[in-house]
Amino acid sequence: MILIRSTGQATPLATRRSKTVREPILPVVLEWWGETCRLAASMIKGRALITLSLLAALVVSGVATVYAVHLNRQQFIELQTLQRDKDRYEREWTQLLLEESAWSAHSRVEQIADQRFGMHVPDATKIEIVR
Questions:
Q1: Longest alpha-carbon distance in the chain
Q2: Which positions ≥6 away from 10 have C-beta within 8 Å?
Q3: What is this structure's pTM?
Q4: 3-state helix, strand and coil shares in percent for the chain, rounded to the nearest 5
Q5: Phi/psi at 128 (nearest 5 deg)?
Q6: pLDDT per residue rounded down to tens, the chain (131 residues)
């Protein structure tokens, strides 16, 4: 087997193996793996914090939306109740105005004055105009 170097020279692999001193590979891989895990853990920790923060914001936003919709419905129900009461009071006020006009009609006042108190409209000859 032949190993080709970047300079373009061919070197037999057996020769290369015999000339180089090999370092044990396991400690190097373990060191690399540890650094990679620490880096990944710090990245995941930061991402997890951001993710948890966004999740908490999402939950708070959802709960706030539900609460706002609930308050809106309660206030709408209260508005409908108040409008119904207003309509009822307006009808009652209209009826009271009609009743007042009926009780205060001149013909009714004249009739009660005649029946209860014996009062009547005087003749035109008995009316005196004072100036």
A1: 158
A2: 2, 3, 4
A3: 0.47
A4: 75, 5, 20
A5: -115, 135
A6: 454 555 555 555 555 455 555 667 777 778 887 888 787 777 777 677 778 788 889 999 999 999 999 999 999 999 999 999 999 999 999 999 999 998 888 888 888 888 988 888 888 888 888 88
